[in-house]
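User: Before I run my own analysis I want an independent prediction to cross-check against. Here's the chain; please return only the structure tokens and, at the end, one sentence I can use as a sanity check.
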Amino acid sequence: MKAPTQPAVVVTADTHRPISEVDRVDAGSDRGQQPGPSLAELELLARWMDSVFRIPGTELRFGFDAILGLIPGLGDTATSLVSLYILQEARKRGVSRLTMVRMGANIVVDYVLGSIPFFGDIFDVYWKANLMNVELLRQHSLANSAVQRRLKISDWLFLAGLAGLLIALLVVSLTLTYFVIRWVGTHVFA
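Assistant: Structure tokens:
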């Protein structure tokens, strides 16, 4: 006689709920034919990385990403490896390339801006790349073809916005470079 399976207790990626509130899900329910961690286990990993702790008296949440980010260079690299693990699991589950690019962009933003001394540590408290990526993975795994089409449009809009931001940063940096070179040419070499 087969023993009944006990549901695993898993914390969802909802960052607005206290850690004590949990959802009960069957630990293997979203695995299907997929080897590796379940979606619930990836959500738990993302929660630990991005929002497991709450600053008392506030609604601000942070995780080990922000804590390890305090170690210059090494901390942000280590936490990015965890983020890349989630990205790899998304690839194994057949997430579209466009969604993977969006997930990768979340990781790059987290790594690059999180690496800036002091500002990056504050940024890590607000930018929750792992939770965002697990949510994208969840949307992919639960989506039918009509929903996947809508998600694809959302992914394209995100990438267009990111490209616009990068172009704006390029224009601003080139403009600043022009004025610095012009100032140096008129004040230093004049």
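Sanity check: The radius of gyration is 21 Å.
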